[in-house]
Structures are given as structure tokens and as C-alpha cells.
Design brief:
About 45% of the residues lie in helices and about 15% in strands. The chain has about 575 residues and is an alpha/beta fold. β16, α21 (about 495-505) and β17 form a beta-alpha-beta unit. α1 (about 5-20) packs antiparallel against α2 (about 25-40). It is globular and about 80 Å long. About 40% of the residues are buried.
């Protein structure tokens, strides 16, 4: 098990305890704290445990360390298994409904005796939930909306979860004798924010013996993470992994590899116009090859790579992230595809938290971690005062923090610059949590919504536009507030928001945390075309949190962003000038 999986297990234990009658609130909090502490660890958790370095970590007591060691040694936690076995399944199902916490779940279960989500939905439609003391019609309607959200996202997994599963198997397969080429395909390769399954394609030499193929398939289906085999053959095997994710593995001759990889990378929406392009040139394309067609005769067009396939169709190579039928076919024909931003283009971080608010690490530690990762600057954005739950700073504390930053900037001169900032809450009416005088004292401001998610679309849109029009707001953080697979974004008129941001010169971030990936890639291209600068930000609350930047780059690439479209590709002095010019205009 890796760090993320163990942290998730600790979170699930906390939830299961909350669903259990008579659980201690202190025990629940202990597991919640353990989850946060694990996510904040810097380094390989297995190595830290083996070297005894978990002891003394804030948030990790003897019991939680024992659970971690058990997970690392056995791949599961017996206490978790016991809690699951003793929790009514419908309670587990209800815990997936956005906004429905353990207390309300227990009340529904006790009052209505529902045994399935279908029964819960019927109870809502019969107005029985509304009549539970303390619930009402509004809560009932939210539960119905939550049930629809659960159905819509059933059997989907976050990108980083699926990526970790695929990478473990890819690394193992890469060592197998006989494999020539090996590549993850499907929606994972296209960097979709959530995926339903994993596709992987491998090749062997064209003259490889059947025994070689059989050995590779045997190895794949016997991986430790395989829970069930749902199909097995010479060219394709299908399994279900311990995480519940289905995985298809295809094994082809190396001469067929580029065609198979291209076909199973998708998307279907990309392939339909591509096939039309091929047909117009008297060609046909499928997972077996690209063929020229003369009457009844089809002749294979040899291609070594996917680039050769597109070249044969007189097109530029289309990066996997762009294969969504969002205009990439026509742009590739015209040879007008953008040179997409890459991780190496990033020069720094512009949304990060420290122990001054709810971060796990000090400013110094965060700064040193940025230096280690090759970044040139750190934008410090601890929470503002209304976020008391996150240790938000008042104006006096923000000033004291600025004094610490000044000292560190002298110490780190020539290696790293720390920009003084804040993640300032946008209040219900669209005003900001700090006054303009306080905001003007900072280098930059990230403004975000953390409350009042249930306003109408018109109210929420006007709230956001008022914040955007504040002269000291530089960046809007996690614009829609969505939590992937956990909570839909709040209602916004996206066209109006993007036009307002463009008008006021305000940036909209791509929040790179794999549970957010917000701004959604569908809107990134439009934001770019409106001239909006889009920073890729980790929203880091720990040293490890800095490393999620690569997920944000995936979204940026899906949104057609070039390096010049991304704010934090600017060098330090250029970024200083950018913020200075914005403030000098006020």
C-alpha cells in the first residue's frame, strides 16, 4: 500500500466509527488526524516506518502507527475489515451521498429502516424523509440531488488513484522478457480527471512464440493487486483490481502496436471525424492498421508510431490529451496545434499553505521543498480570518507573517523568492474577508469561496463577479468548488464569469489537487482564448502536496494551454513586474 491508500483507509475508519453507535468522538478525530498527518508526510511511508521515523509525527499515535505498519506489511487493516463487516451496507452506500454526514445517516437508518439507496429514494419521493425531526423538505431535496450525483459517478475513480494502480502493473510488466513496447492507453492516457477503467497495450516481436505471450498473460493475471480474472486469452486479458477498477491488457505483435495503442487510447469522439478524414483519402483505420482502399482491396500502410499514422493522414501529431473532438482534427490538418505546456515550463508555486494556517509545514520547510524541486518562487497563501476552522489569519497575524517572509527572502536571495499572499475568503455578498488596505500590502491575492455553496446560480455568479471586480484580486482559486466524485460544483454562469475575469485581468487557477482539478478542462480553452492567464497551482498543505502540480499540467494540456498562457511559467522578476504593474494601476 502507498501513502495515499493508507491515508484513505484512515479516513474511512473515521467514517465507519462515526456510523457506529457509541463511538468515541476522540477516537474518530484520532483517525482523521492520522489521515491528514499521513498525507503530509514527505517521503516514502514504507521507508519512514521501517526506519522508525513515524514516531513523534504530530497526529500519529501508537495505535495509528500500528495500523500503518499492518497496512504496509499485509495490504489491509484488520480493524477496518471488522468495521466494514459490522456496518449495515446501506450506511456505507449513504456515506457516498454529498453533504450527508454520519449523524443524519444514522438518523435516517434508525427512523426509516431503509436497506438500500433505492428505498431511500422512495422515502424521499414519499416525503417521509422531510418529516424526520430536523430534516425538512430542503434537506430531502438535497438528498435526492445527491442520489442522482452518486448514480452519475458510479464506478468511476480519481485520476491519481487509477494512475497509481496502472503504474504498479506497468512497472512489473516492463521487466518481463519478451515485451518490446508497453503503454497505458484509454482515458488515463488522455488525462481525464476521472476514469472508469484502465487500458494497457503491450507488444512482442512479430515472430514471438505462443509460449512468450502465454507467460506474459500469466504474469499479468497473477499480479498481487488482481482480485478477479474476468477474461484471459492470447491477445487480451481482463481483471478487476483490489481497488475495484477493471483493467484490460492487450498484447499484440510489435508491427501492430501503434494502431492498437491509437485505437484504444480513444476517444470515440476523436475517432469518428478521424475515420471520416481517412475515408475522404480512400483509407480506413482501425485497431489492426491504417489501410489504403482500392475497390475491394485493402493495403496496410506501415507505421512505426502514432506520429506516422497522423502523417499518413497529412496531419500533425495530436497529443493524447487533445483527442476529445474539441477542434483538434481541423487544427491538425491546418498544422495549427499549439505546443502544449509541460511540467518543465513551471517556475514556481502560487497557492500554498503553511503552519500559520492549516498547513503541515513551516514557511521555511515549504520554501526548501520548492528549491529541492527546482522552483524559483513560492506564493504563500494562508487562509484569511473567517476561515477559523483552518486557522485563518487576521490582519495583525498576516503582518507578522510578512515580517517572517522578509527575513526568509534575505536568507534565500538568489535561490528562491517568497511572494506574500493570502487565500482570502469571498464572503456571501461577494466582498472579501480583508479590507483593501490589507490586500494592498500583499504581493498578490488568491480569492476563493469556502462557504454558502447553495446559493442560486444568479446569486453565486454575482457573488463571484463582485470578487473578480475587486481591484486587489489577482487569482480566483478553485473556481467551481467541486470535489470530484464527492461534491458537484456550485452553480455559476461560466460565460459571465470568464468574461468578467477577462475584463478585469484576473487569473483563474487550475487547482491541481486530484480531487479538484478545477478549472474544468472544458472551460480552460475558452479562458485562454479570452486572454485569461491561468496559473497551475497545487493548493499545497504539505511538502508532498507540492507534487500534485503534474495533475494540473494534465488539465492545462487538455485545455490547449501553451507555456505563455500559464502565469507561473514566468521567471521570478517577470512575475514581480506582473504583480507590481497590477497593483500600481490601483
Amino acid at each position: 500500500m502507498d501513502k495515499r491508500q493508507i491515508a484513505d483507509l484512515m479516513d474511512e475508519i473515521a467514517t465507519l466509527l462515526a456510523l457506529k453507535d457509541g463511538s468515541s468522538v476522540f477516537e474518530i478525530r484520532a483517525y482523521e488526524n492520522a489521515s491528514r498527518a499521513i498525507n503530509g508526510l514527505d517521503g516514502d511511508i514504507a521507508i519512514l516506518a521501517r526506519e522508525g521515523k513515524l514516531k513523534g509525527t504530530p497526529g500519529l499515535g501508537p495505535t495509528s502507527i500500528k495500523r500503518i505498519e499492518e497496512a504496509l506489511e499485509t495490504g489491509h487493516i484488520t480493524f477496518y475489515d471488522e468495521l466494514v463487516a459490522n456496518t449495515p451496507p446501506v450506511k456505507l452506500d449513504m456515506s457516498r451521498i454529498p453533504g450527508l454526514g454520519p449523524k443524519r445517516i444514522n438518523t435516517i437508518y434508525q427512523q426509516l429502516n431503509v436497506t438500500s439507496l433505492a428505498e431511500l429514494e422512495s422515502a424521499c419521493k414519499d416525503d417521509r424523509v422531510a418529516h424526520i425531526p430536523g430534516f425538512g423538505k430542503k434537506t430531502q431535496d438535497k438528498i435526492l440531488q445527491g442520489l442522482q450525483f452518486v448514480r452519475q459517478h458510479a464506478d468511476r475513480y480519481l485520476y491519481d488513484v487509477a494512475e497509481a494502480e496502472a503504474e504498479r502493473i506497468r512497472v512489473a510488466l516492463a521487466e518481463q522478457p519478451g515485451i518490446v513496447r508497453l503503454q497505458v492507453a484509454g482515458s488515463l492516457r488522455r488525462r481525464r480527471e476521472t476514469v472508469k477503467d484502465i487500458d494497457m497495450v503491450a507488444s512482442v516481436a512479430d515472430d514471438a512464440e505462443l509460449a512468450v505471450r502465454s507467460a506474459i498473460m500469466d504474469f499479468f493475471t497473477s499480479q498481487p493487486s488482481v482480485k478477479a480474472i474476468t477474461g484471459k486469452g492470447e491477445t487480451k486479458s481482463s481483471v478487476v483490481l483490489d481497488s475495484g477498477i477493471a483493467m484490460d491488457f492487450r498484447l499484440v505483435s510489435d508491427s501492430q502496436f501503434p494502431y492498437t495503442l491509437h485505437h484504444f487510447t480513444g476517444s470515440r469522439e476523436h475517432h469518428i471525424p478521424l475515420r471520416r478524414r481517412a475515408n475522404s483519402m480512400h483509407m480506413t483505420i482501425n485497431d489492426y492498421g491504417l489501410f489504403s482502399v482500392e475497390g475491394e482491396k485493402e493495403t496496410l500502410i506501415p507505421c512505426q508510431t502514432e506520429t506516422d499514422i497522423y502523417a499518413a493522414l497529412k496531419m500533425e501529431y495530436v497529443e493524447p490529451e487533445l483527442r476529445e473532438d474539441m477542434g483538434e482534427i481541423d487544427a491538425a490538418i491546418r498544422h495549427e496545434l499549439p505546443k502544449l505546456v509541460e511540467m518543465d515550463d513551471l517556475r514556481g508555486v502560487l497557492h500554498a499553505h503553511s503552519t500559520w494556517s492549516d498547513g503541515h509545514n513551516t514557511i521555511r520547510e515549504m520554501a526548501e521543498a520548492c528549491i529541492e524541486r527546482g522552483y524559483n518562487y513560492l506564493g504563500l497563501t494562508d487562509h484569511s480570518k473567517v476561515a477559523a476552522y483552518a486557522g485563518g489569519l487576521d490582519a495583525a497575524a498576516l503582518k507578522r507573517q510578512g515580517e517572517e517572509v522578509d527575513k526568509l527572502n534575505k536568507e534565500f536571495a538568489g535561490r528562491l523568492h517568497i511572494f506574500k499572499g493570502t487565500e482570502c475568503d469571498i464572503l456571501r455578498d461577494g466582498s472579501l474577508d480583508f479590507d483593501d488596505e490589507t490586500l494592498a500590502s500583499l504581493d498578490f491575492v488568491v480569492a476563493s469561496i469556502h462557504s454558502n455553496f447553495n446559493l442560486t446560480q444568479e446569486e453565486q455568479t454575482q457573488r463571484m463577479i463582485r470578487a473578480i471586480s475587486n481591484p486587489y484580486v489577482d487569482i480566483i482559486g478553485h473556481l467551481t468548488g467541486r470535489i470530484l466524485l464527492g461534491r458537484p460544483g456550485y452553480q455559476l454562469d461560466m460565460d459571465a464569469i470568464l468574461e468578467a475575469a477577462a475584463q478585469h485581468g484576473v487569473c483563474i487557477e487550475i487547482n491541481a489537487h486530484p480531487s479538484r482539478l478545477d478549472l474544468d478542462w472544458h472551460f480552460v480553452h475558452k479562458a485562454r482564448d479570452l486572454g485569461i492567464k491561468i496559473p497551475v497551482n497545487p493548493d499545497a498543505h504539505s511538502l508532498a502536496g507540492i507534487d500534485v502540480m503534474r495533475y494540473g499540467i494534465g488539465v492545462a494540456r487538455k485545455g490547449w494551454l501553451r507555456a505563455e498562457d500559464v502565469l507561473n511559467t514566468l521567471e521570478t522578476e517577470a512575475l514581480k513586474d506582473y504583480f507590481y504593474v497590477r497593483r500600481s494601476k490601483k
